[in-house]
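Is this the right way to post C-alpha cells for a design question? Let me know if I should format differently. Anyway, here goes:
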C-alpha cells in the first residue's frame, strides 16, 4: 500500500508537469504564428487635424463675410475717415440711424458685399442719406472693411443732393470695383428733379471712393 501511494503521488506530479509544458508550447506556437505571418498589433490612431483652409470662405476668402445687416449698428465716421457731408466727431449708427446737432444720417437699404480693399475677406458698400434740416438730402457711399468679421469704415464719397441710390453690386471680376446705379440730373436741369439714371463704377483709394467711369440713360419718374 505504501508503494502504491508513492507511485500515485509521483504520477500526479508527472501529469502536472506535462500539463504546464503543453500549455507553454501552445502559447509559444501562437506567438510564433503571429510573428511568422508578419501581423502587428494595430497602433492607436490620432484624430485628424483640420486643414488650414477649413475655415476659409469659398473662393479664397478667410473668416466670415460681412453682412448688410451688420452695417445697421456699425461705426460710420472715425478719426481716420470723415464723411464728405457729415459733421465733425465720431459717428456710429444705431439701428441704421444717427442724429445730432440737427443732422440726421440714415443708412439706405441698398448694399453690396465683396472685395473692395484687396484682402481675402469680403467687405461691404452701402449708401447713406444726410439731412441737415433744410431741403437738401445728401447721398453718399461708404465702404466698410472686413476686420475679422467687424465692419470698419474705410472710404467714402458724396453723390450729391437728392440723388437716391437704386442698386449696388460688387462683381468677382474685375475685383475691387463696385457698380452703383443712382438717379441724378444733368448740369442744366433743376435741382428738384431727377432726369438721369447713372451707372458708375467706383474703386477704393482710402479714404476716398474714386469714380472710374459712368454712363447715363434718360430717366422719367
Amino acid at each position: 500500500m505504501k508503494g502504491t501511494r508513492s507511485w500515485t503521488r509521483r504520477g500526479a506530479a508527472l501529469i502536472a508537469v506535462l500539463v504546464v509544458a503543453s500549455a507553454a508550447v501552445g502559447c509559444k506556437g501562437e506567438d510564433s504564428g503571429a510573428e511568422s505571418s508578419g501581423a502587428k498589433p494595430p497602433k492607436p490612431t490620432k484624430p485628424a487635424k483640420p486643414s488650414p483652409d477649413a475655415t476659409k470662405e469659398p473662393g479664397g476668402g478667410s473668416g466670415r463675410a460681412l453682412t448688410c445687416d451688420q452695417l445697421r449698428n456699425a461705426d460710420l465716421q472715425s478719426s481716420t475717415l470723415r464723411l464728405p457731408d457729415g459733421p465733425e466727431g465720431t459717428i456710429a449708427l444705431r439701428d441704421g440711424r444717427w442724429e445730432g446737432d440737427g443732422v440726421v444720417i440714415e443708412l439706405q437699404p441698398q448694399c453690396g458685399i465683396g472685395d473692395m480693399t484687396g484682402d481675402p475677406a469680403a467687405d461691404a458698400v452701402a449708401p447713406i442719406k444726410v439731412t441737415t434740416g433744410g431741403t437738401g438730402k445728401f447721398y453718399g457711399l461708404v465702404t466698410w472693411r472686413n476686420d475679422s468679421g467687424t465692419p470698419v469704415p474705410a472710404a467714402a464719397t458724396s453723390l450729391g443732393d437728392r440723388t437716391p441710390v437704386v442698386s449696388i453690386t460688387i462683381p468677382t471680376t474685375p475685383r475691387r470695383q463696385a457698380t452703383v446705379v443712382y438717379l441724378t440730373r444733368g448740369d442744366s436741369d433743376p435741382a428738384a428733379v431727377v432726369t438721369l439714371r447713372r451707372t458708375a463704377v467706383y474703386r477704393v483709394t482710402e479714404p476716398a471712393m474714386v469714380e472710374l467711369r459712368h454712363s447715363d440713360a434718360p430717366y422719367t419718374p
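Format looks fine. Someone answered above. Worth noting: The chain has two domains: 1-45, 68-218. The CA atoms of residues 98 and 105 lie 5 Å apart.
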